[in-house]
Amino acid sequence: MINLLKMDLHRFGRNRMMYLLLLLFCAFQIFGIFMMKKYEQPVEGAIPVSRLTESEFIQYNISQPPSWMLIYIAVFTIYFYMSEFNSGFHKNYISMRNARLHSVCSKLIILAIFVAMMFLTMLIADGAGRRLFFDHTALGDLATLITLLIGQFLLHWAFSILILCIAMIAKNLLISLSAGFILALNVIGMVLAALEAQLTGIHLSKYLLINTLVRVKDFNSTADIVHTFGVAAAAILLFGILAVRYKLKEDLN
Amino acid sequence: MTDCMIEICGLTKMYKSKTAVRNADLKIYRGEIVGIIGRNGAGKSTLLKMIGGLVYPTSGELHFFNRAAAGEQSFFERMGVLIENPGLYPNVSAYENLNLLAMAYGLGDRNAAIEKLLQLVGLDSKNTAKVKSYSMGMRQRLGIAVALLGSPDVLILDEPINGLDPQGIVEIRQLILELNTAGLTILISSHILEELSKIATKYVIIHQGEFIEVLSREELQQRCEERIELGVEEARAALPVLERELNITKYKVVDSRTVYVYDENIHIRQIVKVLSEQGIMIDSIAKHKQSLEQYFLERTESAGERHD
Ligand SMILES: Nc1ncnc2c1ncn2[C@@H]1O[C@H](COP(=O)(O)OP(=O)(O)OP(=O)(O)O)[C@@H](O)[C@H]1O
Ligand SMILES: [Mg+2]
Questions:
Q1: Over 50: is that where the pLDDT of A137 sits?
Q2: Residue A44 is assigned to a structural domain of this protein
Q3: Where's the ABC transporter domain (chain B) (predicted)?
């Protein structure tokens, strides 16, 4: 496991795509802040975006579809998995003890590292952009910010595991990328929520991973915290197990 | 040689409704070189994939060292495989590919191991060109190096000679023999029996997913050598005549009425002449010659093409 992770880390560190994605994300994030500044229209009764604290700003950003962060994560996940799968490199080590299980676990850790790096990049970009264009760098309540970051990190990681499952099962770059985009736009979540509202009285769709992810959360409410972390944990477990189980049974042709 | 490394019992693999390998039984002992021969689509790669743990059998069992390899269990700590196309990252160098795999294996002195292997298969370790710019033969060589990394107990090579130039073929064949001498058990597949005849100790002929024949090197040689098959009333009476009159030294008495003569310079009519002069009756006499390829073709002719 450690050895396979070492190998994946080595490949991760030399992955130009990863640096490119982070750089693009950083640039677009700052550019986005610039655009917000330029086209800011005061909405009555609401705090202008430029006056939000970092926590509020993150919540605001993530709740505005499409979530670019999800798209970057999807692209990276698919790229990282498919480059190994398509090359057939896994054939070389798959006869090792528990290689299938370990290779999936190692991928999960790599994904967590990438998602963490995305959040770090976001914090840096936000800090720089807000300083430059809003001249406002307040972080807000630190505990709230940290809870928010951890919660969102877990939700995004769960999303990347979901994308990993899709890439593993689809075995096709285009199909998995399209699926990634559709999920990042949360088409399914919105349709289900609408249908649910129309047809039934129950409200289960808000517990969907991406609906939870984009919802503006109130971390003073225990229910919201439980909701966020509960959904994240459940999704990580569910998709993680799905990925491992699929890999264990897969025929590697 | 009594150590059974791999035992295959009733191994079957179906893809949807198509059976790629059907009910295969085989025992592979330590130190053997097993040649698997079959036409395109015969199921060679599928069989090797099952042994290599890439593909799960639909039914049947695989035993390693007499232990069942059920589910996800490890087969060997290190089994070197080269099946179909070598699994290589196209955008990095040969060295880097090996380096990544050496990491996965947790090898200690990676650099030394890699340099040695690259030299062994005739590639330049200083070559920093990306693998995608490699020729087919270079890729195949690198694939063999990848399979050899980490000193495996068992080496599985699926058509390793594909794309190699004649010198390359000789080199690889030499390499396989050396590795075998050093104690490796090797499984190797090919379309061409001739190609394996110089190295394998056991042959498996597979056709449309079924093992048609499993034979040892000696058995194969026996079936393919050139000889005159002589049928007489009493072999004991014929032998002194053949020895005395024709100086025949290489022969074999198959049973009391049949003798095989292996001397190349002897003609059928010479034998007929001396035996009839001595009053010995010949029941039958025929030249038997079959090349390895003929032998293989004969075994694998599909039912429709059979001409008898
Ligand atoms: N992934 C797959 N899905 C469906 N059918 C397959 C698959 N892999 C192999 N087959 C079928 O199984 C049969 C055996 O294939 P296999 O690749 O084992 O043949 P082979 O002996 O290696 O042939 P070749 O000499 O061309 O490499 C073929 O008829 C092939 O069509
Ligand atoms: Mg094949």
A1: yes
A2: no
A3: 6-233
